[in-house]
Design goal:
Blueprint: H1 3-19, H2 25-35, H3 42-56, E1 62-63, H4 64-69, H5 71-75, H6 79-89, H7 96-104, E2 109-111, E3 121-124, E4 127-130, H8 131-149, H9 156-166, H10 178-187, E5 191-196, H11 202-216, E6 225-229, H12 232-253, H13 259-263, E7 270-271, H14 272-276, E8 297-300, H15 308-317, E9 323-328, H16 341-345, H17 356-366, H18 380-383, E10 385-388, H19 396-406, H20 410-418, E11 424-427, H21 432-452, H22 459-470, E12 473-477, H23 486-499, E13 514-517, E14 531-536, E15 544-550, E16 553-558, E17 565-567, E18 570-572, H24 573-576, E19 581-587, H25 598-605, E20 608-615, H26 620-627, H27 636-641
Parallel strand pairs: 2-3, 5-9, 5-10, 6-7, 6-8, 8-9, 11-20, 12-18, 12-19, 19-20
Antiparallel strand pairs: 1-4, 3-4, 13-14, 13-17, 14-15, 15-16
Helix pairs in contact: 1-3, 1-6, 2-3, 8-15, 9-11, 9-17, 10-11, 10-17, 11-12, 19-20, 19-25, 21-22, 21-23, 25-26
Length: about 650
């Protein structure tokens, strides 16, 4: 069979799979582009289609061993679907060595060496990358490895004295106190990773770490500290939490450390885009290695949401002397974009694996003795990673359910859901009208306050009260499309609220419309994922503004200036990260899919602080999701681990 015939058959099959929804249109387009750069062999074209498809699902590379051994499972297809693609391609390698040899021989594929190359694909051992993701992953690995090894001298007795003051309280925990231990670990390095589930005290810990850093700094008055997070909401919550904790600490340390004066210089927490100086219509940032950030300490919250490209840009812009502290829950969903950086960095965090030098240092600097089962031969990164293990506020049925899901214990999760009382509820064999009814009940208090107007309240106080009521409830969806997804449910929820007289929609914009920003807009200072509520402009009758809650502050933008928004009575679980609602409703669809996995269920549950309701058209999809753990293909851990030890 002639190669061109094979190619035509392959393109026909790719087009058919695209029409059937098994491939993105971009995947076939990318492969065709690569075919114009050199000889288009069937293995290369198939690899291009699969690599592009996996990138769209959050993977940073194509694992060739999985392609060689079980391609259908790799792609989430049936054996028949893979066979049809393979048959259309013609002859494909049968073994890993064959894939490596044939791809390595292609003009469009560069094999690891110098950074200066133009090929669109990179073959690194058994992994095939798009060029920019290989560069990003390599940059992150090099920076993390370098920072993890940069252990600095610490005055251990001085650190111990301050930590005893900062953690002196009635709070009791089983030894060791991982929060205190984490502060000691972070004090000595250019990188610290603090991970833990809801209520384990990540921001509580980092507030004490900040106080410790100020206390031991040679020139605390000139210590430059920056706070950041992936989204505006997460940044505002970080600043609010740390400010409260530092204010409490200021009373504790008294005149020994002018904490209020020192922390007042930190300024507001910022989104990572804002911190790095994002530029419209380009992927580049104002800050980079040639124009680094002006910081000594950078704290990044909700690090699980930071995708590979952003982490590479952040590490590139950070000056060598600065300390980077990453906070996040390693078990939450990773970002929508490619990469699962925090998950890769924290993959073995629960094991500790602290070497003798770390154990001795931590005991001297914090007084915390680490039991032998936490000892080990972990590399440099393990010595700078701490997992907080005790949840102080996230208990009861919601916490138990989150733990069961995270452990993959479907039977226990079902038991809690069926017997969780008022805190946890499961509506099985549901219809979308169940979600609509819950939404009507959940949003009614907010919309009733909107309808009542400010009354005797100052306008800003009324707006704040309205926004806080809106933030008390949210519908979260596993998927975007369909009657069980964001688009379908937003429409029917809006119709129900209108029929109840809680809102009046006469055009796209109306009083009470909640909206989510879908694209960063630096002119109006709104960012992807920000959520606001549409309310009247008090100074101009008939004019609408969208109000955003940032901590305790409120700001607004004219509705007509917001170009990239969508109605947000319901939102995806991905977009909810960094938020917390008193009552969270998680909606699962009828259709099963690889994207509905344990991490999504866990993240949805942990958005709820007081009440959690699961709505599903059946029970099987929940069990399957809990059993399915998301694993994103990545070479980051291997790149760091190759020379991490020593």
């Amino acid at each position: 069979m002639k190669p061109e015939t094979v190619s035509e058959a392959l393109w026909t099959q790719v087009a058919a799979m695209t029409e059937d929804g098994h491939l993105r249109r971009l995947s076939g387009t990318f492969a065709r582009f690569v075919s114009t750069l050199g000889a288009a062999t069937p293995p290369l074209m198939v690899a291009c289609v699969l690599l592009s498809e996996l990138e769209g699902r959050g993977h940073s590379c194509l694992m060739l061993d999985e392609l060689a051994s079980d391609p259908a499972t790799l792609m989430g297809w049936s054996d028949e679907q893979w066979s049809q693609l393979a048959q259309a391609a013609g002859t494909l390698p049968k073994h890993l060595k064959g894939w490596i040899a044939q791809l390595g021989a292609c003009d469009q594929v560069w094999q690891v060496g110098d950074f200066d190359f133009d090929e669109p694909l990179v073959l690194d051992g058994e992994r095939l990358y798009l060029r920019r993701y290989w560069r990003d992953e390599t940059l992150v690995a090099q920076a993390v490895r370098s920072r993890a090894r940069a252990v600095r001298p610490v005055d251990a007795p001085k650190a111990r004295a301050w930590l005893d003051i900062l953690f002196a309280s009635e709070r009791k925990s089983e030894p060791p106190d991982w929060q205190k231990f984490a502060c000691a670990i972070a004090l000595r390095g250019a990188l610290a990773i603090i991970t833990g589930g809801p209520g384990t005290g990540k921001t509580y810990t980092v507030a004490r770490l900040l106080a410790l850093l100020f206390a031991v700094a040679p020139d605390a008055a000139h210590q430059r500290v920056a706070l950041a997070a992936p989204t505006g909401k997460a940044a505002a919550r970080l600043k609010q939490s740390i400010d409260k904790a530092l204010n409490d600490l200021a009373d504790k340390v008294g005149e020994a450390l002018p904490l209020r004066e020192l922390t007042a210089r930190m300024g507001a927490a910022r989104t990572l885009h804002s911190l790095l100086g994002a530029r419209p219509d380009t992927r580049s940032f104002a800050h980079h290695r040639g124009n680094p950030l002006d910081v000594d300490v950078l704290i990044v919250d909700e690090a699980s949401m930071v995708h590979l490209e952003m982490m590479a840009a952040l590490l590139d812009a950070l000056p060598p002397h600065a300390t980077l502290i990453l906070l996040g829950d390693k078990d939450q969903l990773a970002s929508v974009e490619a990469g699962a950086v925090l998950g890769d960095l924290c993959r073995d965090a629960q094991s500790g694996r602290y070497d003798a030098a770390t154990v001795a240092y931590a005991l001297a600097a914090s007084g915390e003795a680490i039991a032998p089962h936490w000892h080990g031969d972990g590399g440099a990164l393990a010595q700078q990673t701490v997992m907080l293990r005790q949840s102080r506020r996230f208990g009861g049925p919601i916490g138990q359910l989150a733990l069961a899901v995270n452990a993959g214990d479907s039977a226990r999760a079902h038991e809690i859901l069926r017997g969780g009382g008022e805190a946890v509820r499961w509506i099985e064999h549901a219809h979308p009208h169940h979600v609509v009814q819950l939404a009507a009940e959940g949003y009614a208090p907010c919309l009733e306050l909107v309808a009542a107007g400010p009354g005797a309240l100052p306008h800003d106080a009324w707006v704040g009260a309205v926004l806080h009521r809106f933030e008390a409830f949210r519908v979260l969806c596993a998927v975007r499309e369909g009657e069980w997804g964001v688009t379908g449910l937003n429409e029917v929820i809006e119709q129900r609220l209108g029929s109840m007289g809680l809102l009046r929609r006469r055009s796209e914009w109306y009083v009470g419309r909640p909206v989510m920003i879908t694209r960063n807009d630096y002119g109006t200072r709104v960012f992807n994922g920000d959520i606001g509520l549409t309310l009247p402009d008090p100074a101009r009758p008939g004019v609408l503004r969208v109000y955003f809650l940032e901590g305790d502050d409120v700001r607004s933008v004219l509705a007509t200036r917001l170009r990239h928004v969508e109605t947000a009575y319901a939102m995806t679980v991905h977009k909810s990260q960094g938020s917390e609602f008193r009552h969270t409703v998680l909606v699962l669809p009828r259709e099963r899919g690889a994207m509905i996995a344990r991490e999504l269920i866990y993240t949805g549950i942990t958005r709820a602080s007081e009440r959690f309701t699961l709505v599903s058209p059946g029970s099987a999809i929940l069990a399957e999701a809990i059993a399915r753990r998301t694993r994103r293909a990545s070479g980051l851990q291997d790149m760091i681990g190759d020379s991490q030890g020593s």
